[in-house]
TrEMBL record:
The gene is qorB_2. The lineage of its organism: Bacteria, Pseudomonadati, Planctomycetota, Planctomycetia, Pirellulales. Residues 9-156 form the NAD(P)-binding domain. SUPFAM superfamilies: NAD(P)-binding Rossmann-fold domains. The keyword Cytoplasm does not apply. Gene3D superfamilies: NAD(P)-binding Rossmann-like Domain. This is Quinone oxidoreductase 2. It comes from Allorhodopirellula heiligendammensis. InterPro entries: NAD(P)-bd_dom, NAD(P)-bd_dom_sf, NmrA-type_oxidoreductase.
Amino acid sequence: MTIIAVTAASGQLGSEIVNAVVDIVGRENLVGLARTPSNAESLGIEIRPGDYESPQDLQRSLEGVGSVLLVSGMAAPDRRVTQHRNVIQAASRAGVSKIVYTSIQGAEENTAFSPIVQSNRQTEDDVRSSGLQWVIGRNGIYMEPDVDYIETYRQRGEIANCAGEGLCGYTTRRQLAFAYARMLTEPKHHANTYNLHGVANPDRLSYQVNVTQTLSRKQTVRSP
């Protein structure tokens, strides 16, 4: 069976993807790449060096791998593009056949987040022109950060953000991992780009009201 590698395996999304892929191919057919390998030892799979800034280490770590999942990095946009290219080029040189990339959704112009979206679109282009088989997923908004922030809302006594009545199609990292595991293991996804998000309901304001009703004391909902 083809060996699969998952980059950023010690991260929140990467580790979820590792667990989802293990369920399909077993631990013996999966390796994790991590900038600090010791941080990923608890995953119970082989861990290899995977610093996006170290092309030679990346190439060595990808030797013998058939498919690699590239988790989008967290660096500044320009640096992020270079880091991703290091992984793509290392995969090509190591003889990897297929690459799956975790991109993002979002407007490419006129928002504070647009430079990050643009950097992801550049990596999408790099993936498509790499000569490898490819699949791209564009992640929506994770539910977990909002859940993690509930205690902060409680302490502040209000839920404040700039979402207004905008709709939000939340996903969880586990749901995304389920999708990426299948992109990695099912040939039918080749050369596809998927928008990965939930149904845009409830809107952010409804979510905030539900949180308010759940908390033990009255909160103010403020969404300018």
